[in-house]
Design brief:
The complex is a heterodimer. Chain A has a single domain, classed as Folate-binding superfamily (Folate-binding fold, 2-Layer Sandwich), CATH 3.30.2270.10. Chain A is globular and about 40 Å long. Chain A is about 15% helix and about 30% strand. By secondary structure, chain B is α/β, with parallel strands linked by helices. Chain B has two domains: about 190 residues, FAD/NAD(P)-binding domain (3-Layer(bba) Sandwich), CATH 3.50.50.60; about 150 residues, D-Amino Acid Oxidase, Chain A, domain 2 (2-Layer Sandwich). In chain B, strands 1, 2, 8, 9, 10, 11, 17 and 18 form an eight-stranded mixed sheet that branches. In chain B, strands 5-6-4-13-14-15-12-16 form an eight-stranded mixed sheet. In chain B, a hairpin with a 5-residue loop joins strand 14 and strand 15. Chain B is globular. At the A-B interface, strand 3 and helix 1 of A face strand 12, strand 15 and helix 11 of B. The structure holds flavin-adenine dinucleotide and zinc ion.
């Protein structure tokens, strides 16, 4: 069972209270962008086996979107943080690196 | 390979069954092959089989990190149907379904194909309209399906409650030649036939890297060392994103868990497959008498082959309304598989940015039924370097061009 702490209201929410939103930190491309950029934004996904940054919504709580750092290979949760950011905060990165010394921050590679 | 037959059984009965040979060999890898397939699930093995059978290419290795058939092929609920909405889907799933009809004879291995009939229940007015549309589409595609009334549904499935309070049955899309097959046997039958053609099935050997030069694959690094190849086929379902990463490209795919469960065995009570897509539940009865039950996918990326409990709870809750008699059944086993979901819920059978590297994936929650057709199409693609008519539309560039084969609008679920 997945439990994520909502960074807004502090509730430790169990999965049925949450709505999943998949990959976080996607850069949005709209009208005027190239087909490649638009395809990447819409469809190409990192889908890593390991550290992953995701969007979640506290659907049956405060209703707000937040972000989570999680391991898809073990279901370990490293931490959650507010959605008003374009990259994971330093304390989350530190937590991940403490648990996964080999992991390299890679969200910047997201096109 | 010694053929299986009634005479073989009689012969072995007379000598204490000492003469059965191993179904397939377990060789060490050679230095290189004409073609390597990564992944010994149904799709990988079928690709190898039709490479040999249809195209005469037999210097082939199928490389599997675990045991053959241990991925989704050995974890699925074995529903076979071809009542899809879009033309390219109907073509490849119907090809697969028709190959299933004679697969046991073709492979000399009993895959227990059971075309017992399949019902997709319409439980909302939206579904009624959707399935009527599918019936018309199927007629044009040459796929035999029909729309049947709630009363007819009740005749076919007496244990069903068709006027439940939340989701009454308003009719059904019926495919009389849909059904099930034995999942392990499909993998084993193809594996045995591949081995008999001289192909190497190498189990317990994980591909760790893909080597390429000048835009062409030269071979793969594995836990048993480097193996060279002239052509590479990636057929690894949930792990496709990883293989693509090794080869340096990205896919429109996310890996999520899908679960299934079986009940204790009971006497025969339902001789068709029933799917209820609005409530995400589907059920059939195995030859052993277990009710085989599946539901919807989890909503987050996951590689653990474990799903969330509340999903099976939801599935059972919905099915108990439709089948009140299962409410006191005990569930015996529950498991999960990692399915590869694409943006339009249709698969990829495609060339890749690397010239001699091909990919077959994205079958998601519904690829067991496609195994023979998919292997057929993938073998043609690998042998000729260009897709035939079955595979052409399933290329990975359709997402850039907006040429979706949108089955998510058609069913919502696609088991
Ligand atoms: C619970 C559940 C129910 C389902 N129900 C149905 C259904 O009713 N009807 C239907 O049609 N479909 C169903 N499906 C979907 C179906 O199971 C799959 O689409 C199909 O089996 C995929 O086959 P495959 O050969 O592509 O993949 P798999 O059988 O998963 O084979 C891929 C293989 O690749 C191997 N592999 C992965 N990475 C590597 C590596 N690096 N090196 C070497 N080998 C590797 C894996 O170990 C695996 O054996 C269901 C799936 C699940 C999980
Ligand atoms: Zn909250």
């Amino acid at each position: 069972m997945l439990i994520l702490e909502c960074p807004y209201c502090g509730v430790k929410a169990e999965e049925t209270e949450l709505a999943p939103g998949y990959e976080a930190h996607l850069k949005r491309f709209g009208p005027g962008s190239s087909p490649e950029e638009f395809e990447d934004y819409m469809f190409a996904r990192k889908n890593p086996k390991g550290v992953h940054f995701e969007r979640w919504r506290h659907a049956y709580g405060c209703g707000k979107w937040f972000l989570a750092a999680r391991c898809t290979a073990t279901l370990e949760v490293f931490g959650t943080y507010p959605a008003q950011t374009s990259e994971p905060p330093a304390d989350i990165i530190a937590k991940i690196q403490a648990r996964r010394p080999d992991w390299q921050p890679d969200w910047k590679g997201t096109k | 390979m010694k053929r299986y037959s009634v005479f073989a059984i009689a012969r072995e009965a007379l000598r204490y069954h000492m003469g059965w040979e191993r179904a397939w060999a377990s060789p060490e890898p050679k230095a290189s092959y004409d073609a390597i397939i990564v992944g010994a699930g149904g799709h990988g093995l079928a690709t190898a089989y039709y490479l040999g059978k249809n195209h005469g290419i037999t210097n082939v290795a199928v490389i599997e990190k675990g045991w053959l058939g241990g991925g989704n092929t050995g974890r699925n609920t074995t529903i076979i149907r071809s009542n899809y909405l879009q033309d390219p889907s109907a073509a490849i799933y119907e090809k697969a379904r028709s190959l299933y009809e004679t697969l046991s004879q073709d492979l000399n291995y009993n895959v227990m194909f059971s075309p017992r009939g399949l019902l997709m229940l319409a439980q909302t007015h939206h579904e009624v309209r959707g399935y009527l549309r599918t019936v018309h589409a199927n007629t044009l595609q040459g796929v035999q399906t029909e729309w049947i009334s709630p009363q007819r549904v009740k005749e076919i499935v007496p244990i069903m409650n068709i006027d439940g309070p939340r989701y009454p049955v308003l009719g059904a899309l019926y495919q009389a030649r849909g059904g099930t097959a034995r999942h392990d046997a499909v993998a084993w039958g193809y594996a045995r036939a591949c081995s008999a053609m001289g192909m190497d099935i190498i189990q317990n050997c994980e591909v760790k890297g893909v080597r390429s030069e000048n835009g062409r694959v030269t071979g793969v690094d594995t836990t048993k060392g480097f193996i060279g190849t002239k052509k590479l086929g990636m057929v690894v379902a949930g792990h496709s994103g990883q293989l693509a990463e090794m080869a340096g490209f990205r896919l429109p795919i996310e890996a999520v868990a899908l679960q299934a469960l079986v009940s204790e065995p009971i006497k025969p009570c339902m001789d068709v497959v029933v799917m209820a897509n609005t409530v995400h539940g589907y059920m059939s009865q195995s030859d052993k008498g277990e009710m085989v039950i599946g539901g919807g996918t989890d909503g987050f990326n996951n590689y653990t082959q474990r799903g969330s409990f509340h999903h099976i709870e939801e599935t059972l809750r919905a099915l108990v309304e439709t089948f009140p008699m299962i409410s006191r059944l005990k569930m015996l086993r529950q498991w999960g598989g990692i399915v590869d979901m694409t943006g339009d819920r249709s698969p990829l059978i495609s060339k890749t940015p690397l010239g001699n590297c091909f990919i077959n994936c994205g079958w998601g929650t519904g690829g067991f039924k496609a195994i023979p057709g998919s292997g057929w199409a993938m073998a043609e693609l690998m042998a000729k370097g260009e897709p035939g008519p079955l595979a052409a539309e399933f290329n990975m560039w359709r997402f850039k061009e907006g040429q979706f084969i949108d089955e998510s609008v058609a069913a919502g679920v696609a088991h």
